[in-house]
Specification:
Elements lengths: L1 E8 L32 E7 L2 E9 L6 E10 L6 H16 L6 H9 L4 H7 L2 H20 L21 E5 L3 H15 L4 E5 L18 E5 L11 E2 L6 H33 L1
Parallel strand pairs: 5-7, 6-7
Antiparallel strand pairs: 1-4, 2-3, 2-6, 3-4, 5-8
Helix pairs in contact: 1-4, 1-5, 2-4
């Protein structure tokens, strides 16, 4: 599993201060800029045929001049270290639900990446910085494993993940929605394709991104949305352009057939009277 850490600069707006060592090959999380503010709590997990990737941003750093930590991970299905990422996600969602973004997860990061550490690593040689970053992240994930459990995801009010709609949206302030979200993240890191997204600029189903037909898409908002107080709400999948094309083709074919029938009938009457 690859791991990266970054501190974002407040004074530099949305510009990233950079990852120590070699950063992720692609800043894929930037494609969500319209639905989430990277300086506020953000959590993005994507999984496909080539593996999975995760991004956690807006974790308070407590360091002067920075807006917070951003973490990025990438790995293959079923990696043992991926369990630490699942626990990190679960624990941080609890911090957010308690309105404590600077809670235990932030404290773990600040303990292993104290003031000036990220900047020092950025000035170090790339291989050395990358190696120390992976070590510190591993220690952070190990610390998170010792934090109090955020709740029992197998509680009686929580159905199996397979019983949920393929695409749904919930709020981080609803316990069952958080637990379902964590279960979906665990599925994604185990090899199931799909996305799990905590988006802070989304207030309800109308603002949520649309999934492709058949896509597993799970969305959380950090806003106490009234429509989501009772639990997750299904999201409509984006219409397939092929489906729309097929419908138009059928309508056109039907019209052509109808015209052909009329022409044939007129011809038959004409030939009969000649």
């Amino acid at each position: 599993m690859d791991g990266y850490v970054m501190a974002r600069g407040r004074a530099r707006g949305d510009e990233d201060q950079g990852f120590p060592g070699a950063g992720p090959p692609v800043a894929w999380w930037r494609s969500y800029a319209g639905t989430t503010d990277p300086d506020r709590p953000t959590l993005l997990v994507e999984a496909g045929a080539g593996g999975w990737r995760a991004y956690l941003g807006g974790i308070p750093a407590g360091e002067a001049g920075t807006a917070g930590f951003a973490l990025a991970f990438a790995g293959g299905p079923g990696e043992e270290a991926a369990g630490g990422v699942v626990r990190l996600v679960a624990r941080w969602l609890e911090d957010l639900a308690e309105d404590r973004p600077d809670g235990p997860v932030s404290a773990c990061l600040r303990r292993h990446f104290p003031d000036g550490t990220v900047e020092r690593l950025r000035r170090a040689d790339a291989p050395e910085a990358a190696g120390e970053t992976r070590l510190l992240l591993a220690r952070t994930l190990a610390d998170v494993a010792w934090l109090p459990a955020p709740g029992d995801a197998s509680g009686p009010d929580l159905p199996a993940a397979g019983g949920d709609p393929l695409a749904w949206i919930g709020t981080v302030h609803h316990r069952s929605s958080r637990e379902r979200f964590v279960m979906r993240v665990e599925e994604l890191l185990s090899g199931v394709e799909g996305r799990a997204l905590l988006l802070n600029r989304v207030g309800g189903p109308a603002q949520a991104p649309q999934g492709l037909p058949g896509e597993r898409l799970t969305v959380l908002t950090d806003q106490p949305a009234h429509a989501l107080r009772a639990g997750p709400v299904p999201l409509a999948a984006q219409d397939s352009p092929y489906g729309a094309l097929s419908a138009k083709a059928l309508i056109l074919a039907g019209a052509v057939l109808a015209v052909g029938c009329v022409v044939w009938a007129v011809w038959a009457v004409w030939t009969a009277t000649v």
